[in-house]
Amino acid sequence: MRGISKQDLQAELRKSPLGEILSAELNQSDLAPVKSESYYTRPKTDSSQVPVDLKQFWSGAKRLPQTIDLPAQNALPAILIKKQGDFPPFWNKDHSFIETMEGFYERVRTKNRDVM
């Protein structure tokens, strides 16, 4: 891009649809800043809405399910831990770090299963 004039660059850009848009953007003049009354947008009220019955609003048109399906078991437990390998530099034990962390993850995952 060094040594290419602005006009030559715009001519090359105009050869593609995206380049045409970029070229048009280069030709636009800078707009002067406009003074704003507030930094926040003001909410607009919509008077065309039909009044809603509060009981219908809070109860909803569709009933919620009585039971919640639990997500399927993760096929790769402790995947972030596995990136370190079986014996990372900080692990000074004789048994695998991954096996220890998988057991820990399983206990945490199943600890409060019957609370629901």
Question: Helices and strands in order, then pairings?
Answer:
Elements: H1 6-13, H2 17-27, H3 54-59, H4 79-82, H5 97-110
Helix pairs in contact: 1-2
- Would you tell me the overall average pLDDT? 78
Looking at the structure, what is the overall shape?
flat
Low-confidence region ranges: none
State the end-to-end distance. 62 Å
Classification by helices and strands: mainly alpha
Cα Rg? 31 Å
Brief rundown of the structure:
The chain has 116 residues and is mainly α. Helix content is 37%, strand content 0%.
How would you characterize this protein structure?
With 116 residues, this protein is mainly α. Among the domains are: 1-28, no CATH class; 77-111, no CATH class. The mean pLDDT is 78. It is built from 5 helices and no strands. The protein is 37% helix and 0% strand.
Question: What would the keywords be for this entry?
Answer:
116 residues, mainly alpha, 5 helices, flat
